[in-house]
Amino acid sequence: MAVDEVKLLGFWGSPFALRVEWALRLKGIEYEYVEEDLSNKSLMLLQYNPWYKKVPVLVHNGKPIVESLVIIEYIDETWKNHPLLPEDPFERATSRFWAKFVDDKFVPLIIKMSSSTREQKDKVAEEAREILKTLESCLNLNKPFYGGKIIGFMDIAVAWIGIWAPMLEKIIDVKLLNEEYMPLLNTWFSDVLEVLVIKECVPPLDELLAHYKDYYDRFMATKA
Amino acid sequence: MAVDEVKLLGFWGSPFALRVEWALRLKGIEYEYVEEDLSNKSLMLLQYNPWYKKVPVLVHNGKPIVESLVIIEYIDETWKNHPLLPEDPFERATSRFWAKFVDDKFVPLIIKMSSSTREQKDKVAEEAREILKTLESCLNLNKPFYGGKIIGFMDIAVAWIGIWAPMLEKIIDVKLLNEEYMPLLNTWFSDVLEVLVIKECVPPLDELLAHYKDYYDRFMATKA
């Protein structure tokens, strides 16, 4: 059987590309990582994802797959070792629901929070904390990860928040995570980000902070 | 083995609930349909879907599953006859991508179109036509359905547009479908809506039109 050619078009500061890298690494799949300049997108990106023109794109033996959660399911169905989704259909549906919930509900709040007045920011941050509290309520106290004993689909779909939320707290001056208010979720973030495969694949936090701070400052300058 | 208890909380005018009914009927699953009054939501709906408070909700042996595409995948994984998603992982990813694309891109345009000025309406309708043209480009000329020889996941995810678009054209006075501009998509809409299982489960078109017209008129009155 020919060797698989696996290429990932990503951007180092994208939580969605990061999710896919985590999935590839958890499966032990060798891949070529291609960094995209999002201010000057490559022809390859525009050709493979003309609909969204966004990273991540996984290119497997020449075939492009886009949208991070769709890619992770593709990876899970193509390489069977270290299953990411649970076996049981109800648990699979639950994992898919929560991953979608984060993308539908939490991601727009981050964007809203980054472009609001002081008063609006606090209101949106309150909504965001409610969502995090809801995510906490799905943790099973008897299992370390959403996926059970090993890290799975929902873990890698949600864990980026453990990196991005503290960063947003610094940049936008809001409170999102609170150890007293959501201790279990904070413990889970620490645990999942300590898993070696994940820990080895996290962008440098100071550079990430500088990147997003710069982005935010430039955005706010356009509104001044 | 105990008989499955399958209940669907729906609303007769919801395309998302309709998708799920089509999936259940294609599989030949017996279910109890529970009509929700969306202006006075039942405790059952609020209890089963406190996150979105929306239909459809599938309740299988007491366990709730929400979000139409998540439900359809659950149905496909639980009842194996008449597979809705293709077997091949790349084709599965493609089906999931396009279903998500419709929900992410087309649905917001419908909402935008319904609350715009005349000039904006035409601009948004142009965007909507582009999306429909893109959907047309995925049709395989050698196969009658997106799913191949038989109707599948992507067909039931997209087919509601064949009912809702002509209705919107009448209510909002825009042009969405055009037989000359997208003849293949128009033929596909006709074919899929002629499949007996689908045809038997379509809300009465005159009542649907009256319902949405009334909704639209009342909405516009608040803006006058």
Describe the overall structure.
The structure is a homodimer of 224-residue chains. Chain A is an alpha+beta fold and 224 residues long. Chain A folds into two domains: 6-78, Glutaredoxin (3-Layer(aba) Sandwich); 89-223, Glutathione S-transferase Yfyf (Class Pi), Chain A, domain 2 (Up-down Bundle). Chain A has helices spanning 15-27, 43-48, 68-78, 89-113, 118-137, 153-158, 161-172, 183-194, 196-199, 205-223; strands spanning 6-10, 32-35, 57-60, 63-66. A four-stranded mixed beta sheet of chain A has the order 2-1-3-4, covered by helices on one side. In chain A, α1 (15-27) packs parallel to α3, α4 (89-113) runs antiparallel to α5 and α7 packs across α10. The longest helix of chain A is centred in the middle third of the chain and has 25 residues, at 89-113. Chain A binds chain B through residues 51, 60, 63, 65-67, 70-71, 73-74, 77-78, 89-90, 92-93, 96-97, 100-101, 105, 134, and chain B through 51, 60, 63, 65-67, 70-71, 73-74, 77-78, 89-90, 92-93, 96-97, 100-101, 105, 134.
Largest sheet of chain A: 4 strands, mixed
| Biggest chain-to-chain interface with counts | A-B, 22 and 22 residues
- How many domains of chain A, as an integer? 2
Per the CATH scheme, the topology name of the largest domain in chain A is Glutathione S-transferase Yfyf (Class Pi), Chain A, domain 2
Report low-confidence residues of chain A grouped into runs of 5 or more.
none
Calculate the mean pLDDT score of chain A and round it: 93
CATH architecture of the largest domain in chain A: Up-down Bundle
* Structural category of chain A: alpha+beta
The count of DSSP E runs of length 2 or more, i.e. the number of strands of chain A, is 4
Shape of chain A: globular
* Terminal CA distance of chain A: 59 Å
Oligomer: homodimer
Radius of gyration of chain A, in Å, reads: 18 Å
Task: Count helical runs of chain A.
Answer: 10
What is the N-to-C order of secondary-structure elements of chain A (H for helix, E for strand)?
Answer: EHEHEEHHHHHHHH
Helix percent band of chain A: 55-70%
